[in-house]
Amino acid sequence: MADKERRPPPPTHVGRSNIPSISSNAEEEALPEFEPFGIPRGPPNLKDFLDIWDVNILKNRDEINKKEHHTDLYDNVKLIVRRGQPFQIKLTFNRPYNPEKDQFCVEFLIGGSPQVSKGTYIPVFPNQEQVKGEWGCRILQSEDNVVTLSITPAADSIVGKFRMYVAVMTPYGIRRTARNPERDVYILFNPWCEDDSVSLDNEAERNEYVLNDVGTIYYGEASNVETRPWIFGQFEYGVLDACLYVMDNAQMPLTGRKDPVKISRIASAMVNSKDDDGIVVGSWSGEYLYGVAPTAWTGSVDILLNYANSGVPVCYGQCWVFAAVFNTFLRCLGIPGRVVTNFFSAHDNDGNLKIDVILDENGKFMPSLTKDSIWNYHCWNECYMSRPDIPVGFGGWQVVDATPQETSDGMYRCGPASVKAIKHGQICFKYDAPFIFAEINSDVVYWKRMRDGTQQPIKVNKQHVGQMVLTKEVGRDEIKNITDLYKFPEGTEEERLAVDAAVMYNLKRTQITEQPTVVDMDVRVQESVLIGNDFNLTLEFKNRTGQQQTLVIYVNGNIVFYTGVTKTEFMSKSLEFTLGPWETKTENVFVESKKYVNKLVEQATLHFIITGRVNDDTQILTAQHVVPLQIPRLTIKMEGVPKLNEEMSVTVEFTNPLKKNLEDVSIRLEGPGLMKTKVKMYSIIPPNSSLTWTEYFRPSKLGVRKLVACLDCAALHQVHGVTEIYVNP
Amino acid sequence: MADKERRPPPPTHVGRSNIPSISSNAEEEALPEFEPFGIPRGPPNLKDFLDIWDVNILKNRDEINKKEHHTDLYDNVKLIVRRGQPFQIKLTFNRPYNPEKDQFCVEFLIGGSPQVSKGTYIPVFPNQEQVKGEWGCRILQSEDNVVTLSITPAADSIVGKFRMYVAVMTPYGIRRTARNPERDVYILFNPWCEDDSVSLDNEAERNEYVLNDVGTIYYGEASNVETRPWIFGQFEYGVLDACLYVMDNAQMPLTGRKDPVKISRIASAMVNSKDDDGIVVGSWSGEYLYGVAPTAWTGSVDILLNYANSGVPVCYGQCWVFAAVFNTFLRCLGIPGRVVTNFFSAHDNDGNLKIDVILDENGKFMPSLTKDSIWNYHCWNECYMSRPDIPVGFGGWQVVDATPQETSDGMYRCGPASVKAIKHGQICFKYDAPFIFAEINSDVVYWKRMRDGTQQPIKVNKQHVGQMVLTKEVGRDEIKNITDLYKFPEGTEEERLAVDAAVMYNLKRTQITEQPTVVDMDVRVQESVLIGNDFNLTLEFKNRTGQQQTLVIYVNGNIVFYTGVTKTEFMSKSLEFTLGPWETKTENVFVESKKYVNKLVEQATLHFIITGRVNDDTQILTAQHVVPLQIPRLTIKMEGVPKLNEEMSVTVEFTNPLKKNLEDVSIRLEGPGLMKTKVKMYSIIPPNSSLTWTEYFRPSKLGVRKLVACLDCAALHQVHGVTEIYVNP
């Protein structure tokens, strides 16, 4: 009995709803080819009525529909159009159409149990006037037996894959075309249409944020930004179907699929696998035996196709993988999207405006007690849409974030939240704005922990978190700094007001009385440091008083994950010295490569925490400094003149920069319109040895194409290369 | 390999956070009894320092703490106090305490890795001044070896079960009491405290909404409201621990457990089992073989204890079960809560302001095409709290709803949403206000579906949905009508403005041009109908013109679930007649009991849809009428004079009103403070037979107590009885 109770039967919709919830685009029932009216009165005599001989939906890449709808790039033989914009179809009947006598319509259906009142069944009649919020249709031409129709889907139509029929009305019943999947029509969002809620009024921006299938993701450290190329691949074969599958798998009701706010919110939950068996499994552990290391991917296509084919979450991702896959999803459905990177992002901090760092009585950092972390960088997405669900003025770019966060809300979804609302501290408007506000505006609070367990805040750094927010420039491979979209300049009255507003909406902040500044401390590294090299960490101290000062300084060197989490401490050093009145002194701390090189994690960064005391306790000095180690690039060389469908080759080259063997090395090469993803494995690359890999392929698309390569092994990650190839006809 | 990929290792926090997310109240590490400072310099000499002989936390029901904190009703031997209010403890040392020399503190800890900056580790020192947002402590008395402390938890303290230690500081280290679970302290929300965010400034309301452990739930039909007694049982043995377990099982981080907004939101997800293996499995199918039928429960206690003991969702619940269990959770933690019932609740309608009803060309109802449903009633919860996360003015009662809804957001959680914001149509403020607004303000839109599949709206009824919202009166067993908290009066300017605001925030509405009213139709049933009886449905028609009118009327009688979903049609009848100029005519439709009695579902209601046409198409008539069938009550008779701990008995009596056997009948009897839940089974009760069940028990609590009984079998549900027993000392 107890066992019986543990296995209740699967839930049923009986008693709960007349029709089960319709949340699958894939589900369908075919309509009958003849649908009789009432009780048949003898065999119907249909010879006087229109018979449908042919339906041509002009779906080829070089025909009018895909060209005008900016969908000719999709590697998909079916018709793809955008809502709110007319497309043409040609119907051939057995005789000329007579408007006085003949009555026919074109029917569009999506999902199971389609209904007019839900927008899942739309019959369109010729010369049906275009009304806002409705579909329209007019006859462009009627010549001989052929009628050319111009059909305009409603600008707020459901987005997805529709089935299409042509139906002729007769007094005996409806005569209809047979179900033919070749006539399926994808309807997408339309940034080119003023009435669409994703309308974007700039051609260059539409080209970048909807049509560009290759991009750049920024990472590293604020003073040393690294770039990583990424193949979004939203037009590749199977990707559009995979995106629809994602919504089906989320059991998202079809009626919600007209609203980019709801779609982007569902996707922020579905891109990560937490809760809902979404697309990508997050892992930050450095152990990726069961899948692909987050650093090894070159693009989103393999991830989405793998997920759609298996239905099983794909291993593994970290923030830029979640953001990149999300970006593919958005652009594929026609929602303008971009990946942005926030440098020094406050994470998992419960939407409070503080990140707590715990020091011991001597001012030394205590990693075992410091729960909060500041990520060296964090990637999320922005998508462009109107926000009719919140007050006027908050439309435009919206933050969505698919990286699973550990927040007090217990939710693994985030956004959309208006960027403008975040800038003004108006975090009372949905969704999840407090968390995003905190990611870019938190203070770092240093606590001193006494031996008896008590703690008090001793210093607040208001500048460290959210140092800058970057994305790729429109139309070119450059950095676009969009920090000013998120924050008013530091120290301005507007900034103070925005933070005050956020605090009013219940974000918690720690206020302390600052100690007087007696000594200034500055930390730097002379030049960029190549991985495997020794270097000096330079500390500069300046006495701002006329008195002599005694300093005790602790330098902790840690290997950190990019999440700010410490893996190991590789050095710990203390200095003790005096500064004369107004004296400036420079101390160099020598960092040997052999101390760190065997302990590195995938993102080769060293994290220094420098703390200290002036004259025992007059002033506590604190600084954090991240040193990203430089990693060599892959070089990609092209041979031959690239021509459509003609064989050419590229060569990838790489030299091991470390003083040890690289083992189990994988290289991934990907170029949409050029080749499918290729992966090659090398069991060993000795020190200073080079590998050379030549790959032959035939370009399948014209114009500027990009080829991205990525090398990954346990000792060395984040080795990329990219090249541009212009394919001639 | 493929198989390997399908089973990735469990996620780890390595690389993601220094300390795993702390989301379990149950987790703990003991603190050492002696915590040495630094490197030991020989054996510590502790004889000069305070030694702790005894810690008395005055936790008995008749001692000061539980009395003053209104927690003496909890059947729990541990100390239970409310935040923001002082409680006392007595410490006995080996000698008198000397404030000049001795240093000690009382430590409160919750969960793993407790930290001061997270509010999970709180050391309290004697004479620690009370600061807002902090804990306070003062010495009330210091006499001989005994120190009496008054400790005040912060008014925004985390709510849950804390471990307590007393620690004495010495130069050698910390000397501490051993871990003793008997000194655990539960800290709850405090509606009696002005600074608490659940502060409620009315003693009668606090007595009802926090301290009353028995209540009434309303159901049935707006013109025929039924009542159902319910044992909330928030003070029963094990219930408080079960509520903490619910939050642990939701993996709710401890840091969020100070905020009633977050706790009530998490609970709205956890009370239903969808997504997260929450407490109750919803089922509306009428088949409850694998568990207890939703109608058979008498209270929340069994459900919560069963869930906490097994960790497995409990079968089965419907809206009032979800709402009742939620209410127990809220009151148990100290959040003022109540169950409310909305009559004619628009459901699963994607937050649109319309419920679509599809009629055929003749005006006859088409159930197979009508997806939307209007529930005869729907129960949800209100909880009382301030809302610092949204603009000022929206604190007070908040709607939360744990019944899983099928919305386009794909979420099985709802609220908290401000009742005041809903009334004013300010649905842009979190959480989920659009759905709740639609539940009480939707229009019923009648669509006429043509043979060719096209549809047009022909009539809108703005009055049907959200006819009234009821809850139990404060302090007595009467109905409190709170419709005016949710809606302005129908037809007022304020009502129009509120709906306009909601439409502005993107709720969709259907506007149609109304047809002229030619004929009025009114539907009624003469008296209340006892289950198993025949009756007349009376239709009254009034011609409002000077012309003769021809009417065709369809009457559909359906057995419906309370969700408005049709199980079967049990009668279908059409009438055709004429109305002379200005004539009023009454038509009676006879409804035979044998037609419906064997088809009834658990809530014995009949649903009539009356539609028709005047003069072919001048006007479409539509009406829906719900006839709830009256069900006999259980009678409960008391024998003996009820005295504390003295045996007494009650007798439950019931007579089968149907003309057939009742089979597999279960009766449940429950009375907190009187007896544990008892269940008795009867295999058969023949027609007109009576059962008599006498049960002996000893009351364990004083004062007014309630005993609730509930009978359930396949042919007859919702048979309740309740009696009040005054227990003398």
UniProtKB/TrEMBL annotation, chains A, B:
PANTHER family in the record: COAGULATION FACTOR XIII A CHAIN, PROTEIN-GLUTAMINE GAMMA-GLUTAMYLTRANSFERASE
CC cofactor note: Binds 1 Ca(2+) ion per subunit.
Residues of the Transglutaminase-like domain: 311-404
Active site residues of this protein: 319, 378, 401
Cofactor requirements of the protein: Ca(2+)
GO biological process terms held by the UniProt record: blood coagulation, fibrin clot formation
Similarity comment: family membership: Belongs to the transglutaminase superfamily. Transglutaminase family.
Species in which this protein is naturally found: Acipenser oxyrinchus oxyrinchus
Keywords of this entry: Acyltransferase, Calcium, Metal-binding, Transferase
Gene: F13A1
EC number: 2.3.2.13
Molecular function per GO: metal ion binding; protein-glutamine gamma-glutamyltransferase activity
Annotated region described as Disordered, given as residue ranges: 1-39
Record protein name field: protein-glutamine gamma-glutamyltransferase
Keyword field contains Calcium: yes
Catalysed reaction, written as an equation: L-glutaminyl-[protein] + L-lysyl-[protein] = [protein]-L-lysyl-N(6)-5-L-glutamyl-[protein] + NH4(+)
